[in-house]
């Protein structure tokens, strides 16, 4: 098999066979295919696209490029949840305890944040003592004992994807649907769960800005998951403003705890109950999504989900006292307020701008080597549709570096648009794809 011939075939619109795709993925992962040839192929794929069969074969080849986790020691139908990334998206910390409290085993591997979207692992590490790296026996034992464990993703999961994505990032070939879908799903399929619920964000603060593109991606990923015999459901959700009020690691954990106490923002609560309900249904603990929603709601109102979060924190070495004492979280020393300069209504909060402002306050990374400030971030006192008066506090910026906080304040201030009339609110949950 010759890589030059394969590049020419795809350049001219040809269909790559399963054997050719496996040859490409294996060769590039092992280093026998150089970057310049893989770059040429990625550009050919970007323009000529891949059909469903090619996309599925690429996903499978990347899935099997490294370890495929065996979760058979865990009883029941394991359900995973993945978000395509959003600003203020702390739903895993709410959804996982809700689903686990309803009998769904959650054995989840999550990533760190890079850029303006936060990572679940970073958020969990703001809990004093919390361990995101535990051995396989403890991981699976905890799921069997309390129904829930979330750890950092191992580097041996889909290594081909890691290498190919790094090349896509510097060759302007990120935005191809087949490459995006196979990147996400290769990792999810290798992670071992029996069912997958995908939260596909669309809007200003999401990778997929248009609803139409988000639907295409969602449908493609559901087809890939189902073809691999994993029950897969996608939920298309709005990301035209930050989710909830807190953006930043410890701030988001606190908001997740508040949500499980029944005191969280309406959008976080609504989305978490919906996602948890779908996970409960996917795990065969409910006969419908609607019944799953009601079960999740009951787990929230009874306090069972909060109890499950406490057990989860304690099981992974974290201090469970954080549930009631937020002063145990990392503390900031610098604060800046964004003050409204006219009366009216909040008509827009640019999610991406808030995400970048949070990153620049110290809460996020520009490179994987950057150290983050777990106390840093932004708290939004107003959301889209809220009536405001001149002098109201729109948001507060937190951190431990005066210059970073000042830069973040300037950026976050530009994210708010105040208008004379109330805007039409976007629907939070736009579509469910089964």
Can you describe this structure?
46% of the residues lie in helices and 15% in strands. The protein is an alpha/beta fold and 434 residues long. The strands form 4 sheets. It has a 4-stranded mixed sheet with strand order 1-4-5-13, with helices on both faces. Strands 6-9-11-7 form a 4-stranded antiparallel sheet. The radius of gyration is 22 Å and the shape is globular. GO terms for molecular function: 1,4-alpha-oligoglucan phosphorylase activity; thymidine phosphorylase activity. It catalyses: thymidine + phosphate = 2-deoxy-alpha-D-ribose 1-phosphate + thymine; 2'-deoxyuridine + phosphate = 2-deoxy-alpha-D-ribose 1-phosphate + uracil; uridine + phosphate = alpha-D-ribose 1-phosphate + uracil.
Pattern of helices and strands: HHHHEHEHHEHHEHEEHHHHEEHEEEHEE
Mean pLDDT: 95
Helix content: 40-55%
Give the amount of beta strand, in percent: 15-25%
CATH superfamily of the largest domain: Nucleoside phosphorylase/phosphoribosyltransferase catalytic domain
CATH topology of the largest domain: Pyrimidine Nucleoside Phosphorylase, Chain A, domain 2
How large is the count of helical segments? 16
Q: Main sheet, how many strands, which sense, barrel? A: 4 strands, mixed
Radius of gyration: 22 Å
> Poorly predicted ranges (pLDDT <50, ≥5 residues)?
none
Number of domains: 3
* Apparent shape: globular
**What structural category do the secondary elements indicate?**
alpha/beta
In short:
The chain is of the alpha/beta class.
């Amino acid at each position: 098999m010759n890589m030059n011939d394969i590049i020419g075939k795809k350049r001219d619109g040809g269909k790559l066979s399963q054997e050719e795709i496996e040859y490409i993925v294996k060769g590039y992962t092992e280093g026998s295919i150089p970057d310049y040839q893989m770059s040429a192929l990625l550009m050919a794929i970007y323009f000529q696209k891949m059909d469903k069969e090619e996309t599925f074969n690429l996903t499978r080849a990347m899935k099997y490029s490294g370890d495929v986790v065996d979760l058979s020691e865990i009883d029941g139908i394991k359900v995973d949840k993945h978000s395509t990334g959003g600003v203020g998206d702390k739903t895993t910390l709410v959804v996982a305890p809700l689903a686990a409290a309803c009998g769904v085993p959650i054995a989840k591997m999550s990533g760190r944040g890079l850029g303006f979207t936060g990572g679940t692992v970073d958020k969990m590490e703001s809990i004093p003592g919390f361990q995101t790296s535990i051995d396989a026996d403890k991981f699976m034992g905890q799921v069997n004992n309390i129904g829930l464990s979330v750890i950092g993703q191992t580097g041996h999961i889909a290594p081909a994807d890691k290498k190919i994505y790094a090349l896509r990032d510097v060759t302007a070939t990120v935005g191809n649907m087949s490459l995006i879908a196979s990147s996400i799903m290769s990792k999810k399929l290798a992670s071992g769960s029996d069912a997958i619920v995908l939260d596909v964000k669309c809007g200003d603060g999401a990778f997929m800005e248009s609803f139409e593109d988000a639907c295409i991606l969602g449908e493609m990923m559901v087809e890939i998951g189902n073809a691999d015999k994993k029950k897969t459901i996608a939920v298309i959700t709005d990301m035209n403003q930050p989710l909830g009020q807190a953006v930043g690691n410890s701030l988001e954990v606190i908001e997740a705890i508040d949500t499980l106490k029944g005191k969280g923002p309406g959008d976080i609560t609504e989305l978490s109950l919906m996602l948890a309900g779908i996970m409960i249904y996917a795990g065969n603990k409910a006969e419908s999504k609607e019944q799953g929603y009601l079960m999740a709601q009951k787990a929230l109102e009874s306090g069972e989900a909060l109890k499950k979060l406490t057990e989860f924190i304690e099981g992974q070495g974290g201090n469970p006292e954080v549930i009631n004492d937020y002063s145990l979280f990392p503390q900031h020393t610098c604060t800046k307020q964004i003050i409204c300069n006219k009366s009216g209504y909040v008509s827009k909060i640019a999610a991406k701008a808030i995400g970048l402002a949070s990153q620049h306050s110290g809460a996020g990374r520009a490179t994987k080597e950057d150290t983050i400030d777990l106390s840093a971030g932004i708290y939004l006192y107003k959301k889209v549709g809220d009536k405001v008066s001149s002098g109201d506090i729109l948001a507060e910026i937190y951190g431990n570096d005066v210059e970073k906080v000042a830069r973040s304040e300037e950026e976050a201030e530009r994210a708010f648009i105040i208008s004379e009339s109330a805007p039409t609110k976007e629907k939070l949950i736009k579509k469910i794809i089964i």
